[in-house]
Each structure stands twice: as C-alpha cells, then as structure tokens.
Design brief:
Elements lengths: L1 H8 L7 H4 L6 H13 L3 E7 L2 E6 L4 H24 L6
Antiparallel strand pairs: 1-2
Amino acid sequence: MRILQYLIEGRDFDYTLTDLLHAGVSWGTLNMLVPKLLELEIVVKTRKIGRATLYKINRNNLAAKQLTELYDKLLLVKLNELEEKKVEIPA
C-alpha cells in the first residue's frame, strides 16, 4: 500500500527504485513487489536513464484507476471534515 500510495500521490512523475524507497519500504520488499505490480500492469516502466529504470502508476489499468479514484475521494472526505471542524493549521 505504501508503494501504491507513493505512486498515486506523485502520479505525474516517474520514479526509480531508489526513489520508491522514500515510500517507507525496505529494498527487499520493493524488489519483491515491483515485479508483481508490473505483471499486474498496475505499474509500468516509463524509460531508462543510464542503468536506472523509471516506473509510474499505469493510468490505463482499471485497478490503478479505481485505486486512484478511491484515494482522491478519501482525501476529499478528510479535507471536508477538517473544513467543517474549522481546524486552524499553524504556519
């Protein structure tokens, strides 16, 4: 979920495996999950820069679209809750 959330939040960008470590997962987990996400076509390879391959969420995949929509709707619900509570966020 952390990898998917990271990719959904940055859906306009592509990332190397090293970048995806910022999602808070271990290298072993990343190397285990990325091939599975590629196989399911939830993640696609976008390009290569030197030896690094870059990956991105696949906006054409139905499951990825639904996960993105769910994430966006949950985010809007949370923002509306904060707005209703009139929570003041310190600068």
